[in-house]
Q: What sequence folds into this?
């Protein structure tokens, strides 16, 4: 049985994951409006991943006898200044999610909740991958600069990204 503190923290994490999905849908839409379908696809896959994370946490809370409480999800930003700006915002957000997961892990130790600690390890690995991927795209965008041909190639590369429902990650 999960204790109230961990239940509350995991419910807050579900809310953060759902906010993340909405933020990524907003970014997807921004790219779609600019006919950058590969970048839009990247964020569509990201949104699906975030919903998968929320569902995984939802299922875990129920599995350990807790109660899921869905809260209001704040409205994400939907206007951005550039492709690079979107990814810089994304990296800052992913770092905030990583910090939140770290706080969950810290709390799980404080509460001697080793089952939740074990459950959260999957998310630690996922966040390392998320931050690395976004950082690599930022590096590519900085190399590209104002080169529209190179931007087109990166757009094409990102169009190949798919969501793998079996693992909850991108393929």
A:
């Amino acid at each position: 049985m999960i204790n109230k503190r961990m239940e509350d923290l995991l419910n807050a994490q579900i809310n953060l994951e759902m906010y993340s999905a909405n933020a990524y849908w907003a970014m997807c839409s921004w790219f779609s409006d600019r006919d950058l379908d590969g970048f839009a696809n990247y964020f569509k896959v990201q949104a699906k991943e975030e919903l998968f994370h929320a569902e995984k946490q939802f299922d875990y809370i129920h599995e350990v006898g807790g109660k899921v409480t869905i809260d209001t999800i704040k409205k994400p930003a939907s206007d951005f200044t550039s492709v690079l700006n979107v990814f810089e915002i994304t990296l800052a957000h992913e770092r905030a999610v990583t910090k939140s997961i770290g706080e969950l892990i810290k709390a799980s130790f404080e509460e001697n909740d080793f089952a939740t600690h074990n459950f959260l390890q999957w998310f630690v690995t996922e966040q390392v991958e998320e931050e690395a991927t976004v950082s690599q795209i930022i590096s590519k965008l900085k190399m590209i600069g104002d080169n529209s041909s190179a931007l087109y190639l990166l757009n094409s590369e990102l169009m190949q990204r798919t969501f793998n429902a079996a693992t909850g990650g991108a393929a």
Remarks:
- The chain has one domain: 4-163.
- The helical segments are 4-33, 37-63, 83-110, 114-144, 148-159.
- The chain has a mean pLDDT of 95.
- The two ends are 35 Å apart (CA to CA).
